[in-house]
């Protein structure tokens, strides 16, 4: 009844910490998506997850670009969402009622490019028993998305440039030119500017492509988005498995946040799939459900980041000036290690812990909160 009357979610008593956290996170994300910047008013983007400042900036550009009709070029590492953004631009543009035609330019043989893009007339070559409408004609009034444009051969670059300049093309075996009206979006994870310098990509084509340019940041540069994406995809993946969404422990999330995500969001989705499969019968996922290579990477990185400080402490601060910790860091780490030992040795009993440490209850809770630790981890 409560849900029917507009409640966001409900929690069963006694509420588990993870459940409260998950529910609050979802509610905050929902609120954030509603409080979009004025540039994005009316822009449909609830399928694009993330609220890091860098992503928000990109989305403002995406929304602006959707309102215009100039060619858009999207760059970014593999798996950062170039395809997703191209779709969002089309969906939010005036061309959304017409087709969105995507072409993967990887490994397109020269012999096929013209036929694929421009189509052919009946009898144009042996085997052409029917006429074939090429992708450019299919994208008429809509959007043509050339994915991995950096992989186009020189010959194909020339053909595309001509279409962009004249807005006409000629199907194979036809003796007249046809006109076309499409918006071009292109994307690549290669450094197109460097390719122009090396003369492996045409400069004139490059300038035609980049009326608008959006660069999607890699996931490791927006770690806050990792948590939101993990929540979003955890729910989806669990729904695919036909199970309740699994909670993720703080350690699990920390491990994800430290990883470098070379395959970006695509890699995150596949890691979550693997984790769900590995912890299928458990309500909460822990780091041991993650692939070993990922855990080793994250552990090593955390260890290396902490190393100068820990080394300093282990050596009684030694004599080496390099990596000498600030007093604040030194105190913080000592305090944190002290709390770990206190929690362990007191067995998590508050009275015992207070008496061992000689602090008040509120003092101990304050310290635990400061270090993001719990008495009963
Ligand atoms: N911000 C996001 N929110 C939700 N899902 C995302 C987001 N960004 C990417 N994804 C998802 O990540 C996966 C990879 O995204 P996409 O295929 O768009 O990446 P790409 O940059 O085009 O990769 P490639 O260069 O390899 O073609 C897709 O499943 C996509 O839906």
UniProtKB/TrEMBL annotation:
Keyword Transmembrane recorded? no
Span of the signal peptide:
none
Residues annotated as domain Sigma-54 factor interaction: 48-277
Which keywords has UniProt assigned to this entry? ATP-binding, Nucleotide-binding
Q: This protein's superkingdom?
A: Bacteria
Where the record annotates domain Response regulatory, the positions are 1-28
Q: What's a Pfam family this protein contains?
A: AAA_lid_14
Q: What name does the UniProt record give this protein?
A: Sigma-54-dependent Fis family transcriptional regulator
Query: Which organism's genome codes for this protein?
Result: Desulfobacter hydrogenophilus
């Amino acid at each position: 009844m409560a849900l029917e009357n507009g409640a966001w979610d409900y929690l069963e008593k006694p509420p588990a910490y993870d459940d409260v956290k998950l529910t609050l996170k979802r509610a905050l994300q929902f609120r954030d998506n509603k409080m979009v910047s004025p540039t994005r008013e009316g822009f449909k983007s609830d399928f694009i997850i993330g609220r890091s400042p860098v992503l928000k900036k990109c989305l403002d550009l995406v929304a602006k670009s959707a309102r215009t009709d100039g060619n858009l070029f999207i760059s970014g590492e593999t798996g950062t969402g170039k395809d997703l953004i191209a779709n969002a631009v089309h969906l939010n543009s005036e061309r959304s009622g017409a087709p969105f035609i995507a072409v993967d330019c990887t490994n397109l043989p020269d012999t096929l490019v013209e036929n694929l893009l421009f189509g052919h007339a009946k009898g144009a070559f042996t085997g052409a028993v029917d006429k074939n409408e090429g992708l450019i004609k299919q994208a008429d009034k809509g959007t043509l998305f050339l994915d991995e444009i950096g992989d186009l051969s020189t010959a194909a670059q020339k053909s595309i440039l001509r279409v962009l300049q004249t807005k006409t093309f000629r199907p194979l075996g036809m003796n007249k030119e046809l006109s076309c009206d499409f918006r071009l979006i292109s994307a690549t994870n290669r450094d197109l500017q460097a390719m122009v310098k090396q003369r492996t990509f045409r400069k004139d084509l490059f300038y035609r492509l980049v009326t608008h340019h959006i660069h999607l940041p890699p996931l490791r540069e927006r770690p806050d988005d990792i948590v939101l994406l993990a929540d979003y995809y955890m729910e989806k993946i669990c729904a695919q498995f036909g199970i309740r969404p699994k909670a993720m422990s703080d350690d699990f999330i920390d491990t994800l946040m430290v990883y470098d995500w070379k395959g970006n969001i695509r890699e995150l989705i596949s890691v979550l799939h693997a984790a769900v499969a590995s912890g299928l019968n458990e309500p909460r996922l822990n780091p041991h459900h993650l692939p070993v290579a990922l855990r080793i990477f994250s552990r090593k990185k955390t260890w290396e980041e902490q190393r100068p400080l820990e080394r300093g402490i282990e050596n009684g601060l030694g004599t080496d000036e390099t990596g000498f910790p600030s007093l604040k860091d030194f105190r913080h780490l000592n305090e944190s290690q002290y709390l770990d030992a206190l929690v362990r040795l007191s067995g998590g009993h508050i009275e015992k812990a207070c008496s061992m440490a000689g602090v008040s209850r509120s003092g101990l809770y304050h310290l635990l909160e400061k270090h993001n630790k719990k008495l009963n981890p």
